[in-house]
Specification:
CATH class of the largest domain: Alpha Beta
Strand order of the largest sheet: 2-8-7-6-5-3-4
Radius of gyration: 22 Å
Strand content: 5-15%
Structural class: alpha/beta
Distance between the termini: 12 Å
Helix content: 40-55%
Largest sheet: 7 strands, mixed
CATH superfamily of the largest domain: Type I PLP-dependent aspartate aminotransferase-like (Major domain)
Number of helices: 15
CATH architecture of the largest domain: 3-Layer(aba) Sandwich
Length: 437
Amino acid sequence: MKNTPIPVDLVNKILSDNGIKEVGKASIREIKKLINDIETASGVKFVRMEMGVPGIPACKIGVDAQIKALQNGVAAIYPDIDGIPELKKEAAKFVKNFINLDVKPEACIPTVGSMMAGLACFMTFARLHKEKDTALFIDPGFPVQKNQFKILGLKYETFDVYDYRGDLLRDKLESYLKNGNIHSIIYSNPNNPSWVCLTDKELRIIGELANKYNVCIIEDLAYFGMDFRNDIGTPGQPPYQPTVGRYTDNYALMISCSKAFSYAGERIAIMVLSDKLYQTQSDDLIPYFGTPVLGRAIIYGAVYAISSGTSHSAQYAAAAILKACNDGSYNYLNDVRQYGEKAHVMKRIFTQNGFKIVYDHDEEKPIADGFYFTLSYPGLTGEQLLHELLYYGISAISLAITGSKRTEGLRACVSFVRPDQFEDLEERAKLFNENHQ
């Protein structure tokens, strides 16, 4: 190893001290602690790309509304499990204004982040039809969702969408669905970690197959509207957030406040069920949830058992933010567009210094600049690349832990990288490239 910004021996010692033998298999939180330890020991500030958390202040509209709610005493009162009326009403309007789907307020349910929304869906949909005992992930995806399945003792299958874009997606999905045991298909759009955005053709395919095989679709919209190639910031006017909901009524949407509104710390999201799915009945639900109605099973069975509701004051924050979006007084995209601008610069720095973008197209279109991107370096596996980048003060996570088959790749998040670090990033990427010629 040639000269590096951080001594090789120091990095390797800290890896050993943390008990990490294969850094490519380390969890996101393990990587975070590792980088903290290396920074402390070396005095070198990392270009940190491992954590997918907001890098801008929380929406002030929400903060002010939450403070007011606390001052009005809501901290002393349990919220209704299905959510406060103000939030449910504004959530239904938001879905109409920015997705162009009609849903009822009763089917808009606040949850403790999208993590809880997913858990509630997973544990309920798995009991909907006893002959269907397996979920299907369109990967790559958020690793913790699969941990939830493991904790619940539920079955799942996965495949990497990289080689199955466009029309190829139909046959790949049907190869799983024809067995008759799949109860749900799960994906994020835009995707964490690849920033792949499923096209309208692909969403149509998923919706048509959901109808054909009576499968629930769980669509994670954690990065709502953040495909910056399309501006969906004007309420009630196209373009709208792409969704499978145009092609099937068997959908559950997870709309998080964490990234789009930078409200991650309060753990607030909205699970939105189609009206049809909310009213779906199955006697197979009764032994677990005491009701045959899916919507009631999720609210008074799953959500009640998990947390007995969602932070009372945070619901007022979310309601205020959604109301401002709905009436056009707040365009949240103006705040988060900087993520795409940073990704554009960072991708240029890496690609000009020998790196490659792994997931680089949505069918025929170049992938958007957004919250994440993926990178590789010729001749190195993802684990080798991640390990060696530590010597250069650059962090990321391995795609291997996301269900991706692209084992040469890493996921990079732009949120914590400041523009004043671009010069450091360029110098380190250039040095890395020179040392690997």
